[in-house]
Amino acid sequence: MLDIEQHILQRLQPWLHCRALCIAFSGGMDSTVLLHALARLAQQQPLPALRAIHIQHGLQAAALAWPAHCERVCKQLNIPITVVSVQVASTASIEQAARDARYRAFTEQLQDDELLLLAQHLDDQAETVLFRLLRGAGVSGLRGIPEQRDLAQGRLLRPLLGISQHDLQRYAQLHQLQWIDDPTNASDEFARNYLRRQIISPLQARWPAWRTTLQRTSEHMQEAQQLLDELAQLDLERAQQALTESWLQLPCLDLAVIRSLTLARQKNLLRYWLSAFTLPPDSVHWRSWQTLRDAKIDASPVWRLQQGALLRSQKQLYWLPECYLEPLPALQMTLTAPGRYELPGNGCLIVTGALPEHLVIGYRQGAQRLWIEGRGHRDLKRLMQEQAVPAFLRARLPLVFIQGQLCGLANLPHLNHARLGKVSIQWQFA
Question: Is 258 helix (H, G, I), strand (E, B) or coil?
Fold first, then answer.
């Protein structure tokens, strides 16, 4: 029989000096084996401190007794446990909503330099790859479940990912472990259960090695994704190096560089770049990218995504967070001293220097004009165009008034009227 404890110890080698090992303990067989094996290892090896966390979803009556069971098991093994109740959103996919709630709780509970251990195994990995294949996933999705990744202030590790459920069950029976059987696992209502109960059983009879075969597929996809990421990084460097200097702090790419790439490379670059801001668009949603890319130069197209949107201005592509897509409340704020001033729904101002009296901050309204030394009164709209202020930010750019007269624009001190003296007004909007 596979030595599961030694397998776990081997996977833990890079983290043996972390602050603690936190086991996600559902009470099911898989996490019970993981918890028990770690408790035995801790008696033989100098492991980091162990603790467990149980997430109570509250989705079924039977689950009300699970925290007490988990607490009894942890008490027997002398491992402290935290029980966290979560609220699961009412959505079309209860499975996904429960997962989101669970990981939010993990993120909140995980402490600095802790390692969160999850009990997914080889069967889970194979099922995930097959399930995503049936849903039309691409290279990234077919990588399956990652063995490790960053999570909050710590790290997440799945040390059982190379071990079959059969081996885990033999371990559990050998050590006479007791675990919870989730009643919903016997129902075909959920897609995962249907796949496991109705599809995998005949698949196993015809292709006994299907789990390890799909694990190889996952490994091939991981290598392919690494190559795609390396290509995206090269394209990203080009698209960022071509940018002109700007006071803007928004994530931005040069559109001409993106257009020079094939459509496949454009999408690969954008997936890579957008991964820091939002979830990747689905296949149908990508059509909006081509509409945005090919819009006329004077158009103002917007591609809405989760947590924000992509917008064009002149020859550049910007990512704008969701909070800056909402209507902006009116503003008339008097500044009386240097310092930091919060702008409702629009970031903040950092003000330094000796302030003149009656200094007021407001926003653009109608056909305003600004006096520029040597140029006379200039139309504000034209000035913003000259300074490459993106069209979608012009209504948000704070303006500086003295006794009702427009005297300057935040972040553009070279346009300031002499009445402002050496006052500096910096707008931090993202």
Answer: helix
If asked whether residues 337 and 371 sit together in one domain, one would say yes
From first to last of its 430 residues, the chain has per-residue pLDDT tens of 579 999 999 999 999 999 999 999 999 999 999 999 999 999 998 999 999 999 988 777 777 889 999 999 999 999 999 999 888 877 657 778 888 889 999 999 999 999 999 999 999 999 999 999 998 889 999 999 999 999 988 999 999 999 999 999 999 999 999 999 877 776 677 777 888 888 888 888 899 999 999 999 999 999 999 999 999 999 999 999 877 666 677 899 999 999 999 999 999 999 999 999 998 888 888 989 999 999 888 788 899 998 899 999 888 899 998 888 888 888 888 888 899 999 988 889 998 888 888 889 998 887 788 877 767 788 888 888 888 888 888 888 899 998 888 888 888 888 888 888 888 889 987 6
For residues 309 and 390, membership in a common domain is answered with: no
Q: Do 350 and 386 fall within a single domain?
A: yes
Q: Three-class SS string for 175-187?
A: CCCCCCCCHHHHC
Give the pairing of strands 148-151 and 154-157: antiparallel
Which domain range does residue 47 map to? Answer: 4-206
Strand partners of residue 316? 254, 313
Judge whether 22 lies within some domain: yes
| Nearest one of 53, 54, 25 to 37, comparing CA atoms | 25
Alpha carbons 104 and 110: distance in angstroms, whole number: 10
* CATH number, domain with residue 43: 3.40.50.620
In a 13 Å sphere around the CA of 291, the CA atoms on its Cβ side amount to 11
Is residue 212 included in any domain, yes or no?
no
Is 214 inside a domain boundary? no
Last residue of a domain, one of 291, 324, 357: 324
Q: Identify whether 267 is part of a domain.
A: yes
CA 39/CA 82 separation, integer angstroms: 17
